[in-house]
Fold:
Amino acid sequence: MTSPILDLLPQLASGAAHTHALGFAFDGVDGDRVRIRVPWREDLVGDPETGVLSGGLVTTLLDHVGGLAAWVVLGRFETLATLDLRVDYMRAAAPRRDLIAEARCYRLTRSVAFVRAWAFEDTVEDPVAAAQSAYMLGSGEGRGAGVNLRAGGPAA
Structure:
């Protein structure tokens, strides 16, 4: 698969302030599946006694890789907004291990991308968590901050 988005994926995986701070790194594309990785770090641990990464980190990772998968299928960068995200936690992440997330956009409509994603250490067949999500396409197209406000008054 060749498209302009493939060259941008490493930057999109870790270029936002929060993804950079969390240490997200692009880990590759295989067909329509995209992977990112977050290296284990002490400051990302949710339970200091076990050394297991935070559940919030897992959710953020799955949401972000889902957006990347939508861009892969679109073949271009377009603004997205998460409409729905369900995360099923299946087990605790292994202590002191990097976490990988993989996602695939399985259905694309004119306005919504539907994605499935998994977080795991070694293989997708042994997931820490699985996600089902929907992303609205073109969520910022032609709109700026405050465009929904009437001049001189509150929102209509």
